[in-house]
Amino acid sequence: QPYLADRAQVDTKLDVARTAANAITTLWTYTPDNIESLPDRSAGFLGGDFANEYRKFIDAIVPTNKQAQVTNTTQVMGAAVETLTPSEATAIVYTNSMATSPMTKNIPSLRYLSYRLTMERRDAKWLITRMSTVTSLDLTPRL
């Protein structure tokens, strides 16, 4: 019986980590052509007040990023579950993000970020209800 409980916990942790990684990739990857639909694409990963905060943030940056023709790509380098209960979890996600724009001569803006995600289980899905930046390192070339 302890073996089955351990296996179930491992499976849940894998589900949380995969969901966190997929969510971060979706939340921070966009082009000038699809940034307006980003809140709708991300909605399936978000819950609570955070869903509204994220939508407001993206709505605020859409005009500027469309005008500058910003393309942002985020790659998850690692994800781990920090805490886990039957209904809540926290996960740490490590990312590499690259943004390009014709306005900066397509010289990439490189950022290494890690996030702490607070997640809640609702209807067999893990949803992000809070996100904070743990580390941030900007390696963008300065010309």
Describe the model.
Helices cover 36% and strands 38% of the residues. The protein is built from three helices and four strands. The chain has helices at residues 2-27, 38-42, 48-67; strands spanning 71-84, 88-100, 109-122, 125-138. The protein has a four-stranded antiparallel beta sheet, covered by helices on one side. The mean pLDDT is 95.
List keywords for this structure.
four-stranded antiparallel beta sheet; single chain; 3 helices; alpha+beta; 143 residues; 36% helix; elongated
Structure at a glance:
The protein is an alpha+beta fold and 143 residues long.
- Give the overall shape: elongated
Give the % helix. Answer: 25-40%
Could you give the count of β-strands? 4
Derived structural class: alpha+beta
Q: Please give the order of strands in the largest beta sheet.
A: 1-2-3-4
Q: Rg from C-alpha positions?
A: 17 Å
- The averaged pLDDT comes out at 95
